[in-house]
């Protein structure tokens, strides 16, 4: 693929004595949504954390727009325009929604038009704007977590399981927000266990197993091939799991 926004080449990451990533190779096309898929525990979250600099790669290259960011500290990667939504949401519970959002807008005051757009896709954020984030429901906290990453236009968004454990109505809200972000031309690397969401949003897919990439291609190809899904992940997207 031409001019990917992100490329991982031979990335190895160790956590204590465990070799988690074992030579990960894939590319994220610019202006597309790339789904990072696979069973639990195969290294998807570690891949995002390594890209973001939370874990240090032992070997390999992580190239963002032509610059190798492997080894850079997390704040430097963030300043390069990478937004990250961790699986544990990473919000500040003791602060208000407003304060959480202000902290996330690193380049200055929040753009009013972008804030109005976020309110339109996540109405509870406007409703509870002055309220403490810790008082939000689980789904509302996830909305805030994603909105914090989206408060400014980023070069690349890394999003880890945004619909995990959420009620179907909230999943629909999340998917709609991510679709709007996609329609704006955003480049997104998305870990997602809900395959109906993955099928609806993904342009391309990368499937991991045991710390390695075992398949990469068009999301539509994977979505339309039940035997391939079963072979790669032991799951059928047709079943909606």
UniProtKB/TrEMBL annotation:
Family under the similarity heading: Belongs to the ABC transporter superfamily.
Keywords from the UniProt entry: Amino-acid transport, ATP-binding, Nucleotide-binding, Transport
Gene Ontology BP annotations: L-amino acid transport
PANTHER family linked to this entry: ABC TRANSPORTER ATP-BINDING PROTEIN, HIGH-AFFINITY BRANCHED-CHAIN AMINO ACID TRANSPORT ATP-BINDING PROTEIN LIVF
Record domain ABC transporter: where: 6-235
UniProt protein name: Branched-chain amino acid transport system ATP-binding protein
Superkingdom of source: Bacteria
GO MF entry, a single one: ATP binding
UniProt-listed InterPro entries: AAA+_ATPase, ABC_transporter-like_ATP-bd, ABC_transporter-like_CS, BCAA_Transport_ATP-bd_LivF, P-loop_NTPase
């Amino acid at each position: 693929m031409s001019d990917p926004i992100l490329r991982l080449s031979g990335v190895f990451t160790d956590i204590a004595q465990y070799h988690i990533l074992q030579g990960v190779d894939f590319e994220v096309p610019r202006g597309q949504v790339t789904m990072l898929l696979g069973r639990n525990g195969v290294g998807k979250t570690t891949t995002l954390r390594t890209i973001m600099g939370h874990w240090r790669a032992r070997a390999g290259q992580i190239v963002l727009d032509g610059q190798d960011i492997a080894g850079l500290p997390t704040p430097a990667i963030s300043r390069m325009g990478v937004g990250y939504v961790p699986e544990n949401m990473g919000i500040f519970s003791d602060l208000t929604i407003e304060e959480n959002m202000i902290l996330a807008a690193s380049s200055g005051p929040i753009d009013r038009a972008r804030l109005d757009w976020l309110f339109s896709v996540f109405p509870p954020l406007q409703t509870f704007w002055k309220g403490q984030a810790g008082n939000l429901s689980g789904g509302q906290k996830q909305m805030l977590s994603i909105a914090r990453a989206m408060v400014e236009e980023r070069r690349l968004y890394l999003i880890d399981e945004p619909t995990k454990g959420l009620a179907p109505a909230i999943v629909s809200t999340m998917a709609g927000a991510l679709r709007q972000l996609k329609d704006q031309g955003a480049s997104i690397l998305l870990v997602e266990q809900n395959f109906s969401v993955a099928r609806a949003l993904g342009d391309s897919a990368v499937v991991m197993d045991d710390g390695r990439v075992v398949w990469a291609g068009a999301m539509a190809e994977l979505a339309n091939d039940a035997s391939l899904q079963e072979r790669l992940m032991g799951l059928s997207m047709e079943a909606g799991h």
